[in-house]
Structure formats: C-alpha cells, structure tokens
Amino acid sequence: MDASSLSLRSPAKINLGLRVVARRPDGYHDIESALQMVALADEIVLTPQEERITCEVADADLPDDGDNLAVRAAHALKALAGVDRGVHITLRKRIPVGAGLGGGSSNAAAVLLGLRRLWDLAVPQEALVALGASLGADVPFFLTAAAAWAEGKGDALAPLPPLEGLGIVLVNPGFPVSTSWAYGEVTFGLTKATKALSMLRFLLEMKRFTEIGPYLHNDFEPLVERSYPDVAMIKEALSEGGALGVALSGSGPTVFGLFPDAVPADVTSGLARPGWTVVATEPITDWEKVFVVPLETASDGEACSPGRASGG
Length: 312
Description:
Blueprint: E1 6-23, E2 29-49, E3 53-58, H1 69-81, E4 86-92, H2 103-118, H3 125-135, H4 139-142, E5 147-151, E6 156-159, E7 167-172, H5 179-185, H6 191-205, E8 217-218, H7 221-227, H8 229-240, E9 245-248, E10 255-259, H9 265-270, E11 277-281, H10 287-290
Parallel strand pairs: 1-8, 3-4
Antiparallel strand pairs: 1-2, 2-4, 2-5, 5-6, 7-10, 7-11, 9-10
Helix pairs in contact: 1-2, 1-3, 7-8
C-alpha cells in the first residue's frame, strides 16, 4: 500500500426495530428504527491521485463507477469542498451485498470521513451528515453514532446506548432482496409494531439489553418470509440455538440473533447450510473508533478519528 494511503473499516449495521410509517412525496419513506453497528466490516483503502476518482472492488460483483455509492460519495464531497483532487478507492467487501446490513451506506460514510482527513478539508460534521443524507437514508447514521433511534427518512437521529454484553450471529441465505421491492409491498402503520418499538426504545434507553428479545420487530419480516422461505428457517434455527431474540435486518434477507454472551461455537456450526453465510460478531460501542485504522505513515499508534476535520 502507498505510504500516503489511508485505511478504513466500514462496519455493518442491524435494525433492532423497523417500522415503515408512510410513503413520502420525495420517494423515500418515513420510518422508525433502532440501529446498531456491528463489528463485521468492509475494508477501504484511499490512495491520493491527481484529479480523477477511480475505484477497484474486490470480493464482490459491484460496479466500480458512479453506480457505486462510495464513488458517488467521493464525487459529492469533491464538489461540496470545491477541490481539484483525486483518489483511488480500493474496496474489499466482507459485508454481503443487498443483505439489509447497510454495506453500501457504510462505504459512503467511510469515504466521506476518510477523504475529509486525506484531503485536509475543513468540512464541519453537520455538513458531512447533510451530504450523506443526499446519498442514502442510512448514511447519516454511520456518520453519527454506534447506536441510534432514527425517524423521518432515517436522517432524524437520536443516539442510543449501544448494546453491550451481547453476542450477535448474522445469517445470510446467499441471495439479495431488492429494497425498492420490499418498500413497494410493505403494509403501513401496524399498531402492534408501534407498541413493540416503544417498548424496545425504552429498554434500550434503560440499558436493559437482555430483555429486548421479545420486542425486536421488522415490518418487512412477514413479507420477506412469505417470498423467501429460507428466512423463516434461519429464524427457527437461531431460536433453537438459544438466541434471546431473532429478527430480520433492514429489508433482508439477513437474519440476526442476539445471545446473552459471546456466541458459542456450536451455535454457528449448527447453522451451516449450503449457501448460507454465518458470522459471529459483536456490537460496536464506540463510534469515535469505529472507522479508525492507523495511517500507514503514523507513528506510535496515531490514527485518524472520524470526528476530526483534519489531521493533527
């Protein structure tokens, strides 16, 4: 890696709760959601170059042009800051694509944070979050907190205490689910969902994390289960493995299970099925450190902080 390159982690998220409230005139949807970052992460390397923005994607079949959210984020920040600089983005995917884990939004957030550092830009955090909102509904979350309550189209955020002391298992059945399809089919405004999310938020705010299992809720879950039977199979397998609670993340198809401690090895091995990807992970508790990987040129552990506008 070039000595001037910057390495970043780009974490996944899960939705502990997700309610779709209404369709908005701008094409988005109003939602209520409890989001939590997890340690499963893509790897991004930003290498400065003259003027051009280029991208190379490893380990996934993704576009490397303007259809890639990371590339769009770089162009958007370049335009906002009015700079004539370039970067080569190397993206190593670990988060499954089209999985309901926010990988693309996280990649965009990581690029915004990393380029603010790499290009030494005095772009305030509020402006970066607003720019992120223009790229995608989940991007502001990744720029804000390790855990948060989201409303509006996902950009009205209130930090929550992050999960602690729980293990998380992610199970992806090996196929993508279209977010636009899911939003087009979902039913709005269920009373049951409102009550479940109210209790979920209360328990999270009180840090009563081991009690949240019965209140995990996702409006997309019945819809996705009907169309993709593997989702119901995964939920059942996780419950039988001792999960405190099980739910779909985002529009799926990834299902997560929460466990009262580190995930036992026999749980993950017992979930092995052809085509399924099983990952034992943990919640992220400190947003300030989540994207941090030391600069190649740094000494004595100096690292880039996502909350800083420039180095030093």
